[in-house]
Amino acid sequence: MNLREIIDQLNEVYDGEPWFGNSISTYLQEIEPELLSKHLGTGHSIGQIISHMIAWREYVIGKLTGVDLKIEVGGENDWESRQFEAADKTELYSKFKSTQKRLNALLSEHTDELLGKTVPNHTITFEKLLCGIIQHDIYHLGQIYLLKSSK
């Protein structure tokens, strides 16, 4: 896989016509603001999942810009404990869109050579990290869809 293909997949999942269904931007637009607090049992709410997705996208952005962000899996900077309310929709969606624009801008500054480089303070390559964030987005998008459609 080359960098252009990864950028294309990132954009396809975000606002294209992915084979699995609606894109992230379509799903997010369809979520009624009052559903941000919706969760099942002790699971995370839609708002918490969106915030989690943003956190990991910001982590990738940090790695691309040389900022060593740390996320403790399961920790406060991984999953926010606060419950999101309808009033948070605009801010959450704006942050998500901002991470998409930032990822595109940063990746457009690089060549395929980036993909073989090791991520600072990691043992994985940027190719694995970038493919991973796409997979992460798709995984959580499925959770959001199930929460949105559950009664």
Automatic annotation (TrEMBL):
Gene3D superfamilies reported for this sequence: dinb family like domain
SUPFAM superfamilies, alphabetized: DinB/YfiT-like putative metalloenzymes (SSF109854)
Keyword Transmembrane applies: no
Domain of life: Bacteria
Alphabetic keyword roster: Metal-binding
The family this protein is said to belong to: Belongs to the DinB family.
Protein's recorded name: DinB family protein
Organism: Marinoscillum luteum
